[in-house]
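Weekly sync notes, structure subgroup
Attendees: PM, AL, DS (notes)

Item 1: joint prediction request from the bench team. They want all two components modeled as one assembly rather than separately. Inputs as received:
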Amino acid sequence: AQKVTQAQTEISVVEKEDVTLDCVYETRDTTYYLFWYKQPPSGELVFLIRRNSFDEQNEISGRYSWNFQKSTSSFNFTITASQVVDSAVYFCALSPISNFGNEKLTFGTGTRLTIIP
Amino acid sequence: NAGVTQTPKFQVLKTGQSMTLQCAQDMNHEYMSWYRQDPGMGLRLIHYSVGAGITDQGEVPNGYNVSRSTTEDFPLRLLSAAPSQTSVYFCASSPLNRAGETQYFGPGTRLLVL
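Output from the run, pasted for the record:
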């Protein structure tokens, strides 16, 4: 069985501060994908990143960066110089790599991030 | 491309009523799925389909039926609604056999069962 744990239920930081959202996962699969999604107050789910279990390189995209550590089964997400528009619920998710692709996402319970102006 | 569309956006039902949540995609994706989102629970997979005529159960299938007669449409049926089915429902689609492709989510349907 797969499990994704986002222990931080809610985080509040002042604008321009850096913030890290934690994600710890459990899986028996040797190959898998990890994802982060953003859910702004409007409710839609916005894809942020996908990481293959083969690739442990950290990734940076603008103010966003992701730290994947297979040894600790973690896939943490850092926002640098946070902005009010970053306020949202962030979900970490996991899926096996099957013959079909990457269906059957298992989501964490989400972290609600509030950026205080 | 409209992407993934869902109707209705919001629905109120009484216990025991039936209804169908509609989901359509215009990206010719083989894979489609339904998730429900509950406070403190994240999103949980209800049913999924890897192509027309093929469906399977996810983590929380009880109380829901699906069918997939076309590639484009994947409706979710509640035969006898219960208050426990009050939730936000998301439909998603993705192509198959393209490793690493992400899933595209619809805007969601908010369902309240009284």
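Discussion: Chain B has a mean pLDDT of 92.
Action: AL to compare against the crosslinking data before next sync.
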